[in-house]
Design a protein that fits this description.
The chain is mostly helical. 62% of the residues lie in helices and 0% in strands. The longest helix is centred in the middle third of the chain and has 31 residues.
């Protein structure tokens, strides 16, 4: 059952009810009536995702363009390397979320996966937009090639890539579960780790337009990680054969592996950046891992702690949950407030 192949869902099954009987292997007509769905809170999430709509071109990069040459060569190098490795991860996420849609029965979940895929495409464009503002096309291409060939980047990305490719080649409930866990690693740990460097620059009043763009991306990723966690919980509830001790161990093992790989990457890329305490950064990654585990419904893996990097609090998920002006008052922007009432009690 765990490895029984999933089949692509037909576009229309008029003999089935509109409200799906399961997120996979269920019965659903293919029609989506948001007023009659199996998990009503998914409509709240859908609305939250839509309310976060933005475009890279909304942010004028002129201030960052002027400031770019004042950065140290080390800061420039790390900036470009992290930018392109984040873009490489989004390049994986966009088609993966689209493919999952083909095997999900519930039309409301299909709709959310579609929005997430579109938002990841926007994020990818945003990194390109930042690059095009700062460096030549030749250097952009060089940096993307660097992201492809860097052995440490390839090592850390392989964890995600293997799970994604296994599902792409042989979609089964078990492989969908593993894809979900690794998607949380990507969106809830790897991305957040990369964002931290840009926030480090921002606290020094450097490259503030870039940090604004990153904060918009993080706001999206916060919702994506939450949704995937809920997807996993529902998948396990509806398919109890997946709810095994072995799969619980897989979650802990895989999230721990992601933390170890991300620590290795951080110690390599941030080693010479003044003002970032790598021991503190390690504990930040463990803090993120605990948070993702709680979202899935599991206990902490690491020692329980508050966010160990006080300077990043202004960019924390908790701060982003409030309707407020963007950081450093660069631009007034209103988002729908996320609260416990619409299900975001463990963001």
């Amino acid at each position: 059952m765990l490895e029984t192949p999933l089949t692509k869902i037909k576009l229309l099954n008029p003999e089935y009810p509109n409200k799906s009987t399961g997120i996979i292997n269920g019965k659903s007509s293919g029609f989506l009536n948001w007023n009659d769905i199996a998990y009503p809170k998914m409509y709240d999430l859908y609305q939250t995702l839509l309310s976060n709509f933005w475009k890279a071109q909304e942010i004028n990069m002129q201030d960052d363009i002027k400031q770019w040459e004042s950065l140290s060569e080390q800061e420039k190098d790390v900036f470009l390397r992290i930018n392109t490795q984040l873009a490489s991860l989004d390049s994986l996420q966009t088609p993966t979320m689209s493919q999952v849609m083909d095997y999900v029965t519930d039309s409301s979940f299909k709709a959310i996966f579609a929005v997430i895929s579109q938002q990841e495409a926007v994020h990818n464009e945003s990194y390109s937009y930042i690059l095009s503002s700062l460096v030549s096309i030749d250097e952009q291409n060089e940096r993307f090639n660097q992201a492809k060939s860097d052995p440490i980047v390839r090592k850390r990305n392989q964890l995600i890539l293997e799970a994604y490719e296994e599902f792409r080649q042989h979609p089964t409930p078990q492989r969908l579960f593993k894809l979900g866990v690794n998607s949380i690693n990507l969106e809830g740990i790897y991305f957040y780790s990369g964002f931290a460097f840009f926030y480090h620059l921002a606290r020094q009043q450097k490259m503030l337009k870039t940090s604004t763009m990153i904060s918009y991306i993080q706001r999206d990723e916060m919702q994506h990680a939450y949704f995937i966690a809920q997807f996993i919980r529902i998948l396990l509830t509806e398919n109890p054969e997946l709810h095994t001790e072995e799969n619980s161990k897989y979650v802990y093992q895989t999230i721990h592996e992601a933390v170890v790989l991300e620590k290795e990457w951080a110690h390599f890329i941030l080693a010479d950046i003044k003002g970032i305490d790598l021991h503190e950064f390690d504990r930040y990654l463990e803090y993120l891992a605990n948070k993702r585990l709680r979202q899935i419904g599991l206990k902490n893996l690491y020692e329980e702690r508050i966010n160990p990097m006080p300077w990043i609090q202004v960019f924390s998920d908790e701060m982003m949950n409030d309707t407020k002006s963007d950081f450093f008052e660069q631009k007034s922007r209103t988002y729908s407030k996320v609260s416990q009432s619409n299900g975001f009690d463990e963001l």
